[in-house]
Amino acid sequence: MKPGLSINLATIRQQCTLPRAIEVCLRHEVGGVAPWRDQVHAVGLKEAARLVRASGLKVTGLCRGGMFPGATPEKRREKIDDNIRAIEEAAAINADCLVLVVGGLPENSRDIKGAREMVAEGLAAILPEARAARVALAIEPLHPMYAADRACVNTLRQALDLCDTLGEGIGVAVDVYHVWWDPELAEQIARAGSRLLAHHICDWLVPTRDLLLDRGMMGDGVIDLKGIRRMIEGAGFRGSQEVEIFSAENWWKRDPDDVIRTCIERYNTVCCA
Amino acid sequence: MKPGLSINLATIRQQCTLPRAIEVCLRHEVGGVAPWRDQVHAVGLKEAARLVRASGLKVTGLCRGGMFPGATPEKRREKIDDNIRAIEEAAAINADCLVLVVGGLPENSRDIKGAREMVAEGLAAILPEARAARVALAIEPLHPMYAADRACVNTLRQALDLCDTLGEGIGVAVDVYHVWWDPELAEQIARAGSRLLAHHICDWLVPTRDLLLDRGMMGDGVIDLKGIRRMIEGAGFRGSQEVEIFSAENWWKRDPDDVIRTCIERYNTVCCA
User: Fold this and answer.
1) CA angle A133-A61-A91, nearest 5°?
2) Closest Cβ opposite residue B154 in set A152, A181, A204
3) Which residues of chain A have pLDDT under 50?
4) Which domain holds residue A109?
């Protein structure tokens, strides 16, 4: 068993339903999984909860809540309601955290400052529900290339400033893909401390052929994975490293057993500090 | 004449040599141009200098120096020598500044901190030459999606920290494409003050289909161009807005007169604060 390795199930999403993904992960003795909500919905929440409980796998996160900005108060309210459902789902499957991709600009807007205010309001609205359900919220700062359409929180500093304002019950998910370039990475990881809730891994390919779906397997790109892991452990995080790879033209086309086998091999050789 | 508008000649690089590009810009009465070194080399430095002088156009910058990191001291020395030639060229064509794209990781390296140190060393090595030639150096922070292969200086804060260390004769080029997402944009532009040497414009398209060659025409994307111009003017910059669009599938395929006509129209409607 690899207790320090978790598989985010986006990594084999084209090949596997939730039951099949769990089966593959168990066969290769990884320690945890992180499902996506659509994968949970496809089998139903109750059955998903039963499956992960029966598997004995750690659930290192549920992906994902967030997407707070909206052009009207009604749209923003709908998003808050959806996040509250996501919190219930995260509680039901006993996830370590609910990962939040906060959302980008509302339709036809160029006001990124306004979008960021909507994010702060959305987070404040759902945090009491998360606390009551004992679900930790993990803001995932996304790479600046997603600022317009996926997340207007783009640095760890920015995410931690939000956490400072919001108080208990909220922290960050550090995905190396989004933050590896940040000149302030070391200092902001140290600042995060006990608010580090998840550590996602993959690699940045050179060249990168698609903004969303061309992430690399660990070791195939330029990210100093051991170096970042050292920073994260230095800040006190003892959780798993969770492999999350969106790869339309490569890993999503391969046999899922091969994918997980490669994840384990690379985890052992290039990820552990 | 549009004295506040300059055309970076990358915008029509597929269609025009330097003489033809200058001719098109003069026909549409734009106020300035910014050529690339390969465009200058193609006609020869002397002829390029004669052409721009005869045109009466302002030269808002020469693109580009930089690319400092290298795997060996010899490679880094070659790059410094090339930058010194670039300084001479900028002086010869009377450019307002030499734009520096500082370079990414050296071959086979994952050490971005090391690359950043090589950049600082390279800048320190060429700055005396630039001062002697009275050529202002403009560090252009590039979008974090280029951190690996084009520039490991990725925020204005980082560029200005370098300027603070280096002293007189060096400032920044602010290209909206690279910095629009930055949560610290307003404060760092204010901090830059008289070190603002160039203001490049274009737009961020949603979706963006290519990391390098899918920039949008002003108004076609999500960047708040007037808002950023207000910040830049607020910091005291009175120079031109320089249109720089890399667009393999759209603007590079169009008639250059149409391109420049559109630049002018958009400059008038969406860029001026």
Assistant:
1) 20
2) A181
3) none
4) 2-271
